[in-house]
């Protein structure tokens, strides 16, 4: 390739990447400007800037409650998934490697079945009767467990394969550790970082979950996304401040996850 | 079996119980009730009703149309983007890659609100384009509007999935091809595209499934007034009028059927793509 040709090619690639960035940035930027605009209607640019919408948002008790409830449900679901998936993976990989094939089919289900479909059955099954859970955070915790499952399962499996579970267990047992000691004191610390990354990323998409939260629980235990949707008729500046606050929160989480991930690969 | 193995098996019980309660049981309920109806009992009455109803067929058609076009536009932008991402310096690449990663979480209700600000009736881009005389009017709450909105959330996902796929395309192949006298078009036609095809189709299929099942974005944008499958299903179990869980189940089975088809095709393509990459 001639020099002139390669410069023009490089210019082309740079512009495509910048254009991609701009397309992805635009809705966020628009929302951000709207959230700090004092008023903005029927004009291209806003008339003035203010932080009052953020003030109003962060002193709104309903918002703070929804934020707290979202945190609670997501953390509970992730704690549950760690407590259940870690032993599961350990048992599958150490004792019954053949089960892995079955698991790989089962974890496709949360992907192949959209939440709106599960909701139909969930509403009828747990709307009344012995397992009445609709309208309570418990049903959300259970559903979020299934949502996080495929991701957590894959992430931890990749980690287990990287650390050579069987050799590690054998070595620990040779040195006199029991199975429990080997699992808790040797295997678990080796999984810590991979687990953290998987947890942070799962948290960031659970935090944005709307379908289950809206259909199964709604205002009876309002999460952040449901609150945002219910605020649709209030000021657009207020909801923009909410969207930006939410996005920044998730941004920090994903940033920490990427940072941890990079650290690991070095 | 030894005592240790029994204990190990016991560890699986809590997981199995939860998975059955929250994943398997609802799905089984939907499957069973899709072939039941209040009036006629067991049978395919629900499905017959769906395929004879203009309203339900419109929902299916809208779902398929929006999913197809948004996946197509999404993947084209993602292909151009991820190929160029490979060709720029690592600082810009890492930055934009990380940014795409983060915006993949920007979907659903917040995304719908952001689009209302930009492209709604009084949105700043709508006004700008109107003032420039490029458009007469723009309705975000229409099929075209939804395709644009869906395309936006398909792009980051497409980039995330496709970027690694370009690994399969080795730079020395390009040099070998050009040494043997192939021009750029011939390289893509006979080497580049065939190597990438399984990955491209696989990504396309994931985008399609992603759009088919999407509910939050369209619900938040149109308060459930636009006729697509997920909206119809939800309206019949949680709406204020005309609750019909059996009919909702039948529609849900159609949606899951479409998505299962898509997932199976993806699995099959994934195997092929792995084979090619090796």
TrEMBL record, chain A:
Pfam name, any one: BPD_transp_1
Localization annotation: Cell inner membrane; Cell membrane
Cellular component terms (Gene Ontology): plasma membrane
Domain ABC transmembrane type-1: 67-257
Keywords assigned: Cell inner membrane, Cell membrane, Membrane, Transmembrane, Transmembrane helix, Transport
Annotated CDD domains: TM_PBP2
Predominant location: membrane
Statement: the UniProt record of this protein carries the keyword RNA-binding: no
Transmembrane segments: 16-37, 67-92, 104-126, 138-156, 168-188, 194-217, 238-260
GO biological process: transmembrane transport
UniProt key word Transmembrane helix: yes
Membrane topology according to the record: Multi-pass membrane protein
Family: Belongs to the binding-protein-dependent transport system permease family.
Name of protein: ABC transporter permease
Organism: Pseudomonas fragi
Automatic annotation (TrEMBL), chain B:
CDD domains registered for this protein in UniProt: TM_PBP2
Major place of residence: membrane
Occurrences of domain ABC transmembrane type-1 (ranges): 60-266
GO BP term, example: transmembrane transport
Ribosomal protein listed as a keyword: no
PROSITE patterns: ABC_TM1 (PS50928)
Membrane topology note: Multi-pass membrane protein
SUPFAM superfamilies listed in its UniProt record: MetI-like
InterPro entries: MetI-like, MetI-like_sf
Transmembrane segments: 7-32, 66-85, 106-127, 147-166, 187-209, 247-270
Keyword line: Cell membrane, Membrane, Transmembrane, Transmembrane helix, Transport
Keyword Magnesium appears in the UniProt entry: no
Protein name: ABC transporter permease
Organism: Pseudomonas fragi
């Amino acid at each position: 390739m001639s020099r002139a040709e390669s410069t023009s090619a490089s210019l082309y690639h740079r512009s495509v990447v910048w254009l991609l960035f701009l397309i992805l940035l635009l809705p966020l930027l628009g929302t951000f400007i709207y959230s700090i605009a004092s008023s903005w209607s029927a004009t291209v640019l806003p008339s003035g800037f203010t932080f009052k919408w953020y003030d109003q948002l962060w002193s709104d008790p309903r918002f703070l409650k929804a934020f707290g409830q979202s945190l609670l449900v997501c953390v509970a679901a992730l704690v549950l998934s760690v407590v259940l998936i870690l032993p599961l993976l350990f048992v599958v990989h150490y004792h019954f490697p053949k089960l892995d094939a079955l698991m790989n089919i089962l974890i496709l289900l949360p992907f192949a079945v959209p939440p709106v479909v599960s909701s139909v059955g969930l509403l009828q099954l747990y709307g009344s009767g012995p397992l009445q859970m609709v309208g309570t955070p418990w049903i959300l915790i259970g559903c979020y467990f299934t949502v996080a499952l495929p991701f957590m399962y894959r992430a931890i499996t990749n980690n287990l394969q990287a650390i050579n579970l069987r050799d590690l267990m054998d070595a620990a047992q040779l040195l006199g550790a029991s199975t429990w000691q080997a699992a808790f004191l040797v295997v678990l610390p080796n999984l810590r970082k991979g687990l953290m990354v998987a947890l942070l990323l799962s948290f960031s998409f659970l935090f944005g979950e709307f379908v289950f939260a809206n259909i199964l629980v709604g205002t009876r235990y309002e999460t952040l996304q449901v609150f945002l949707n219910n605020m649709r008729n209030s000021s657009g500046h207020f909801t923009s401040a909410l969207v930006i606050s939410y996005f920044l929160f998730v941004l920090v989480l994903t940033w920490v996850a990427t940072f941890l991930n990079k650290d690991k690969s070095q | 079996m030894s005592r240790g193995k029994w204990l190990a098996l016991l560890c699986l019980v809590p997981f199995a119980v939860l998975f059955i309660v929250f994943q398997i049981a609802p799905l089984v309920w939907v499957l069973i009730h899709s072939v039941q109806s209040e009036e006629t009992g067991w049978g395919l009455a629900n499905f017959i009703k769906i395929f004879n109803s203009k309203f339900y067929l419109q929902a299916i058609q809208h779902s398929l149309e929006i999913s197809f076009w948004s996946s197509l536009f999404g993947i084209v932008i993602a292909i151009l983007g991820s190929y160029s991402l490979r060709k720029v310096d690592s600082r810009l690449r890492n930055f934009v890659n990380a940014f795409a990663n983060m915006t993949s979480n920007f979907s659903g209700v917040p995304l719908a609100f952001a689009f209302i600000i930009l492209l709604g009736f009084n949105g700043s881009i709508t006004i700008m384009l109107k003032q420039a005389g490029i458009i007469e009017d723009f309705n975000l709450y229409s099929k075209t509007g939804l395709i644009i909105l869906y395309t936006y959330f398909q792009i980051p996902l497409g980039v995330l999935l496709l970027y690694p796929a370009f690994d399969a395309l080795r730079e020395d192949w390009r040099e070998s091809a050009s040494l043997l006298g192939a021009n750029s078009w011939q390289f893509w036609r006979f080497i580049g595209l065939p190597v990438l095809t399984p990955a491209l189709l696989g990504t396309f299929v994931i985008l399609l499934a992603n759009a088919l099942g999407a509910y939050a974005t369209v619900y938040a944008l149109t308060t459930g007034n636009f006729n697509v499958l997920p909206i119809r299903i939800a309206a019949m179990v949680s709406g204020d009028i005309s609750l019909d869980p059996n009919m909702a189940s039948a529609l849900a089975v159609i949606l899951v059927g479409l998505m299962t088809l898509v997932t199976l095709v993806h699995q099959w393509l994934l195997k092929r793509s792995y084979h090619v990459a090796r």
